[in-house]
Each structure stands twice: as C-alpha cells, then as structure tokens.
Amino acid sequence: MVTDLAIAGTELGQSVQAYTLLxxxxxxxxxxxxxxxxxxxxxxxxxQGKKPVSEMSEETMIEFLEARGETKRSDIWNRxxxxxxxxxEGTWADKINAxxxxxxxxxxxxxxxxxxxxxxxxAARQPTIAIxxxxxxxxxxxxxxxxxxxxxxxxxxxxxxxxxxKYSELKKYAEMNxxxxxxxxxxxxxxxxQNVSSAFENNKRIFGNSLxxxxxxxxxxxxxxxxxxxxxxxxxxxxxRTYVSSLVGYMKANGITTKDAALRTVKPNGASIxxxxxxxxxxxxxxxxxxxxxxxxxxxxxxxxxxxxKLFMGGxxxxxxxxxxxxxxxxxxxxAGLIMTGYKMVYAMSRKTGNSFGDGSGYNxxxxxxxxxxxxxxxAIMTLGILLAREGFLAGAGDEDDERKRKYNQQMGDQxxx
Length: 418
Prior knowledge:
By secondary structure, this protein is mainly α. The protein contains 19 helices and no strands. The chain has helices spanning 2-11, 15-24, 27-47, 58-66, 70-86, 92-105, 108-146, 167-188, 199-202, 211-220, 227-254, 258-263, 273-287, 294-303, 307-316, 321-332, 337-350, 365-390, 399-411. Helix 1 packs across helix 3, helix 7 crosses helix 18 (365-390) and helix 11 (227-254) crosses helix 13.
C-alpha cells in the first residue's frame, strides 16, 4: 500500500511526500515501485495508441538491488525512466508545444523577467520572515505564561537560536541536506513554465531520432544544452538559497541540533528534521512561483482530455502554474490578502493540528502568522508607492501619460500626414 501511495504522489505532483515515502521503502519495495511506474507508463502509451516500450531488464533489477545507498538507486531509477522517455516519440501536439516554448525561452527578456521576479520575491520575503518570526515568538511567550512547564509550540521561524550551535554548523548541515535530498526533489518539480513533474515526459524524443530531430531535441528538450536548462538553473539558484535558509531557520526555532537531525529525533512538540525538510521545500517552491496549484492542475487535467482541448488550452493559456501562483502571491502581498489570512485563522482555531505542507492537512497558527507578515509587507510597499507617486518621485505608464505626450507633440507643431 505504501508503494501505491508513493506512486500516486508522484503522479499528482506531490513530490515531497512521494519522495519521503519512497525513501522509507526497502530496496525490494523501491524496485516494485519502479516496475509499477513503468507499467503505468506503458498503459498510458497504449491508451494513446502508441506501442509500449521495453521495461527494466533482469540485469538492471539485480544492479538496483545490489546498489549501495539511496543515491545509486536514485540514479538507476532516473536512468530507467529517462530511457523509456527517449524511446517514445512525441505527438504532433507535443511538437507544436515544444516549438512554442522554445521560441519563448530563446527570448532573453524571458530570462531577465524570471531573474528579476525571483530577486523581487526574495527581497519581499525578508520582512515577511522577520514579522512572522516575531509573532511566533510572542505566541511562544504567551503560551509559557498561560501554561508554565507546558510544551512549547512548534515554530517555523524565530528570532532566537535555540540549538546552542553556531549558525555556520547549522548551515553546513542544511547544505549537505540540500545536496543529498532536496536538490533532486526541487529539480523534479520542473521550472515555472512546465506543468508536468515527470522525468518520462521531459525525456521524450519529441522530434524523433533523425538528424534534424536530434538537433531540435538538443535545443527544445530538457538536456543540459536546451533553452529550458538555463531557466531551470536560474530557478535552482534561488531555490537553493531559500531551502538552506528556511531549514536553518526551522532548526533554530525548534532547537533541532545537527545530532537531532542525524538521528531523526522528534521533539515533544512534534518538530523534526523531516518536517523541516518539507517546510523548506515548500518555501523554496513558493519563492520561485513553482509550487503546486490546484487551479493550475485542474486546467492541465482539462487540457489533457483530448486533442481538441490540448489545442484550445495550449493556445489560450499555454502556461498555467506560474500565472496562478503569481496571482496568489499578488493577493497575499496586498490588503486583500487579509481575507486569505482570516480563512487560515478560522481553520487553525477550529482544528488544533495541521499545516500547509507535508500531508496538506490544513493550516496552523504559524501559517497564519506567515500570511499576516506577507499582508503587512505588501501593504507597506503599496503605501510607500502611493506616497512616492503623490510626491512626484514615482510615475507609471498609462493612458494619461500617452494623452499628455500627444498634446505636447501638438503644441510643438507635430501633425499627421505633414
């Protein structure tokens, strides 16, 4: 049953939970999971009227079982799924989409916008982190006063370091954790212009195996020389930074030492390095607009119904996850986001457990504080912008500016057809 849950999680885009479940399986369990994934891939190919591709050989199965360590087994897993993808040619719709995405990603403006938006989000997160950390600390003090000797609540962040270790030691552990665990999970989520978190889809031979096809594949595929690899590298740089800082912050807030992390110790309040990893992954995805979005997933499922819906949605809304996440961040970092915060507070107060990451069971007060911090940060930025505009230090393009320019040109003697 655990194997089925792990496979289902990968298909639903819940890579964090799926990866955690797969790590807990024995090598035999992981091998069974890989075989079932391959069977499902072939089942879907048959549904699409395509020939199934070869599955894992006996030699590969023996190599998988005899592999020492998670890294080696992960490499074999990725290699097998990539091989199946490379033996599958894409449909005409895949070719059209690949050409459209490649044309867009070849535009330098796309990458400039991507980097600037990630920088802006990183800057906006700093006051949000400080505000939410202060609010969580206040709640901790209040709980101690009301319940002397009680268990302190789990925190996401804190202005205090409760580990007794230096920041450099915690950061060193977080960097190691990123390299051995989070890097693969974050990369499997794709970049902001991808809707499918699948190694099979990313390794399809969309343009076939002819010489022109191989050239186009290098440019439009997911290899290290493709245009999408540059976008992924840009996002991974910011994901890396956010993951490490978020994990260190969680460890400091809950007193999780590097020894506790190595032993996977669970604190009396439920805090653990596993929860810290899930939290840090969520923060890294939010910072780059690549987290799962239910509305975007629903639109993608609708698009994949048939060839007609693929053509319509591909032209009408080729990118779904990023616009939906940008819209969510925009609302969150504004006074209108108080409605979202209010909903989270009602949920958190009606249910004493739950969080917005991990098993997705809901929200707790830490989520409320984070949301409130974002509301306050966005509202402050908006207020500052209004004040600067009123004093003439800030101006934006619009209809009034165009009309003003037209009248100025008329006064200077500009005439049509002259």
